[in-house]
Design brief:
Blueprint lengths: L2 H17 L2 H11 L4 H6 L3 H22 L8 E5 L2 E5 L1 E2 L2 H12 L6 E4 L2 E2 L5 H19 L8 E6 L2 E8 L2 H12 L6 E8 L15 E3 L17 E4 L2
Parallel strand pairs: 2-4, 3-5, 4-9, 7-8, 8-10
Antiparallel strand pairs: 1-2, 6-7
């Protein structure tokens, strides 16, 4: 293991211990973005695609705020080439459905993947563990032989969600394999498109469908019991 990677892991561990998950994300995100503007340019979607996705993300967040002033603040929007992943926790199925419906009407949204869980808010410790998992997956992707800049990672309740673009099935299999072997991961859900030799944006946009996640492990599953992560290939 290189000295650089050791420094990353030491910093990640300290960040988890002292800030309950805030630092690990920033550390690994900083590693991924070390090239500044070159980071966006190196992605399959390019600088313009990254900027467009940022506008879509902002549009969804603004639409939520305008439609429902007190919408749950812990919803997260992740956008890759107009494909919009929603994660977080909602108090009722109605709030979850409303979040997806509002997002689907935002200009630029090609598809909505509604992975919001109907569950109580996570405790700070659970959020910290999710942050550590996200940081570890991102780090493993960065130090692998795949194009990690094309993958975005979100973790909620130990479920890892991947969205982005893969060069081929072998690369995608490698990425999901890395994620599912991180300690504490319960399942891996992939919304990564395989795009061999295809330029970004070549697919014609259609009406944004809403994808629902399969139910995760039930509440009766012992927290300490060993589980086999379930990998769901959505695309």
């Amino acid at each position: 293991m290189s000295n650089f990677r050791i420094v990353v892991w030491c910093a990640t561990g300290l960040g988890l211990a002292f800030s309950l998950g805030g630092c690990p994300l920033a550390i690994v995100g900083g590693v991924a973005a070390a090239g500044g503007a070159g980071y966006a340019a190196d992605q399959e979607r390019g600088v313009n695609g990254a900027a467009s996705d940022f506008n879509v993300k902002t549009g969804v967040e603004t639409a939520w705020a305008e439609a429902v002033p007190n919408f749950p603040p812990d919803f997260t929007v992740t956008v890759y080439e107009g494909r919009t992943l929603l994660t977080g926790t909602a108090p009722t199925p109605q709030v979850k459905a409303e979040a997806a419906d509002i997002a689907s009407r935002v200009p630029g949204v090609r598809a909505v993947y509604n992975e919001i869980e109907v569950a109580p808010d996570e405790t700070p410790w659970d959020s910290a563990k999710d942050a550590w998992i996200t940081a570890r997956v991102r780090s493993d992707l960065v130090f692998s032989n795949i194009r990690s800049v094309n993958y975005t990672v979100e973790t909620v309740d130990h479920s890892v969600y991947l969205i982005g673009s893969a060069r081929d099935q072998a690369e995608l299999d490698h990425a999901t394999g890395l994620a599912r072997n991180v300690p504490g991961v319960r399942r891996v859900v992939s919304y990564v498109e395989i795009r061999p030799g295809e330029s970004p944006g070549a697919q014609p946009p259609g009406p944004p469908p809403v994808a629902e996640a399969p139910p995760g492990p039930g509440p009766d599953t012992p927290a300490a019991a060993p589980t086999t992560p379930v990998e769901a290939q959505k695309l």
